[in-house]
Design goal:
There is one protein chain. The protein is an alpha+beta fold. The chain has 4 domains: 4-77, SH3 type barrels (Roll), CATH 2.30.30.240; 84-164, no CATH class; 184-284, MgtE N-terminal fold (Alpha Horseshoe), CATH 1.25.60.10; 300-408, CBS-domain (Roll), CATH 3.10.580.10. Helix content is 38%, strand content 22%. It has 20 helices and 19 strands. Strand 2 and strand 3 form a beta hairpin. The protein starts with a helix and ends with a helix.
């Protein structure tokens, strides 16, 4: 298969053999899995000229125009066209298969059904060597040593160009580089975090501007804490507040703690009232206490409610699966009375009150409990979550086993370590 470096700078001749210029670039519209080459950019004595790729024929060592240059109608690149050499060579792309940011050293092309198409990005050493004419020599040297040069081709449908809008960039370039991160959004949030951590600040902002709010929130929770604060500081206030609303309250509170006070207050003011209230409450507790590490997301069932009514409540609210491991029972004032499992609720007779199903011997801790003691209790009793109460016994939130892992490992190491274990 040919590579861009192998055809770039080739002579361009007219039908009579006169040399009229050289090929400097090839342009495509980045649509479909393998976009077709549609335009050629030529360097001629009269300046740059864009012609349709179909107006050229590939021959050994050069390209031949099908008619004289003066008779070849000039073409115009549309705003969404991508110039392969200018826009991709030596630029970063997201490998959405390997979930990493890589540098493009060359571009692989192929004749498919009579059309030259962009089929892959060469991100390996071969691409660099090929561009300086040293691939063959390096391959022979490697052969003498009994080795082979590795290939670093990523199929084009698995990569996605990054765009970083620069204020000084021409308007057409900004439009041309506006390519939605649709493939990136399909990755697991932890993989998105890995990718954005390798990006520049502008590229990170572009990603979090384009992801849907739920995905953006999930991904931001997986990013290293210091970078979380940087991303939120760089995002427009309204967008940052919207993402914080979608995050788990304890994660949002942790992030806000890392921001300057004025920025923190601005974002909380922009959040929806209910979510802002949850986060503000968490911010009032010391960071090293149960209240400071708890989440206010939990399922509380009124004690006078029946099993059938409780199941209807769960069906209506659709809580996250991890919130249904423990169902807490509270009285009219919100005081914690007991706990039951989802299984207990499902197998109970429909008209049974939850107070008759619950276990009243629920282990609970005050909000002021030191976080080390919280971790010890969760480990000792092998709990998935531990309820946190105020001085009147009212249920405030829960500390989950995930929070305990974060206590055992330094903040930020938890995300990195658990991601490594999962792969």
């Amino acid at each position: 298969m040919p590579y861009l470096s192998e055809i770039q700078n080739r002579r361009v001749i007219e039908p009579n053999g006169n040399v009229v210029g050289r090929l400097t670039d090839v342009a495509v519209v980045p649509q479909g899995q393998f976009p077709a080459a549609q335009w050629a950019i030529l360097a001629t004595p009269g300046g740059e000229k864009v012609v349709r790729w179909a107006d050229l024929a590939q021959e050994i060592g050069h390209l031949r125009l099908r008619s004289r240059l003066e008779a070849t109608p000039p073409a115009q690149l549309p705003p969404d066209a991508l110039r392969l050499a200018r826009d991709l060579l030596d630029k970063q792309i997201v490998d959405t298969h390997g979930a990493k940011v890589v540098r493009v050293n060359d571009l692989q092309l192929s004749e498919v059904d009579g059309q030259l198409r962009l089929v892959g990005a060469d991100v390996g050493l071969r691409g660099l060597l090929r561009r300086v004419g040293a691939e063959g020599v390096a391959e022979r040297i490697a052969g003498v040593a009994g080795r082979r040069l590795p290939r670093g081709i990523i199929p084009w449908h698995l990569v996605e160009p990054l765009q970083a809008k620069e204020p000084e960039a021409p308007k057409t370039a900004a439009v041309r580089l506006t390519i939605p991160h649709q493939k990136l959004a399909l990755l697991h949030p932890a993989d998105i975090a890995d990718v954005v951590e390798e990006m520049t600040a502008d590229e990170r902002v572009a990603v979090f501007q384009q992801l849907d709010l739920e995905t953006a929130a999930d991904a931001l929770q997986e990013v290293e804490p210091e970078m979380q604060a940087a991303i939120v500081s760089d995002l427009p206030e309204e967008r940052a507040a919207d993402i914080l609303e979608e995050m788990d309250p304890d994660e949002a509170a942790d992030l806000l703690q890392d921001l300057p006070e004025d920025r923190r207050e601005e974002l909380v003011d922009l959040m929806e009232k209910e979510e802002a209230s949850d986060v503000e409450e968490l911010l009032t507790y010391p960071e090293d206490s149960a209240g400071g590490i708890m989440t206010t997301d939990f399922v509380a069932l009124p004690g006078e409610q029946t099993a059938a009514q409780s199941i209807d409540q769960l069906r209506e609210k659709k809580p996250d699966p991890e919130l249904t491991y423990y169902l807490y029972v509270v009285d009219a004032q919100g005081k914690l009375e007991g706990v039951l499992s989802l299984r207990d609720l499902v197998v109970a007779p429909p008209e049974t009150k939850v107070t008759a199903i619950m276990d009243p011997r629920v282990l609970k801790i005050p909000a002021e409990t030191p976080k080390e003691e919280v971790a010890s209790l969760i480990a000792k009793y092998d709990l998935l979550a531990l309820p946190v109460i105020d001085a009147r016994g009212r249920l405030l939130g829960t500390v989950t086993v995930d929070d305990v892992v974060e206590l055992i490992l330094p903040r930020g190491w938890k995300k990195r370590s658990l991601r490594s274990i999962a792969r």
